[in-house]
Design a protein that fits this description.
The chain is mainly alpha-helical. The chain has one domain. 52% of the residues lie in helices and 0% in strands. The chain is elongated, with a radius of gyration of 23 Å.
Length: 52
């Protein structure tokens, strides 16, 4: 177990986790995953939902 921790630490030292994404790139990725803005979605209410 000790050797595994040492090897994992050495491997993780070479990994750069500070990836900088622009706001446009973040929005592009979110839209790929299905993000929509509220003003882009048409809302249909049921009578029951409105009366509550």
């Amino acid at each position: 177990m000790g050797i595994g921790l040492i090897l994992a630490t050495i491997l993780m030292l070479g990994y750069n986790s500070n990836q900088q994404l622009s706001q446009a790139r973040i929005e592009e990725k979110a839209r790929e995953y299905g993000m929509k803005y509220p003003d882009e979605v048409k809302v249909i209410f049921d009578k029951e939902d409105v009366e509550k």
